[in-house]
Design a protein that fits this description.
By secondary structure, the chain is an alpha+beta fold. It has helices at about 25-30, 30-35, 65-75, 75-85; strands at about 10-15, 45-50, 55-65, 95-100. The longest helix is centred in the middle third of the chain and has 9 residues, at about 65-75.
Length: about 110
Amino acid sequence: MTEASAGGKVAVLAKIPAQPGKRDELVAALQAAIDNANTEADTLLYILHTDPKDPDVVYFYELYTNQDALTAHGTSDAFKEIGKSLRDLAGGRPELTMLTPVNGKGL
């Protein structure tokens, strides 16, 4: 499978720092983001991860049908409100790594 045959899908790896000692609270608050993603037909995967080696960070792996779906997700009113609700828990802005899916199970 080549990039062109991946159907234009786009992915994001989002690293979100938590304020020291607040990772579990951040995880709980991020349930709203997962609930929102569950309403987005073009959000294919939206998976929250913790890092067993870093107690103050979480990651999301996100897969979208195309760039328009990613843009719609990130600019939605719901997403903006969720972001505001995380201010007391996040230790900074998310670090986003944009990815181009090429090949793999489920792609």
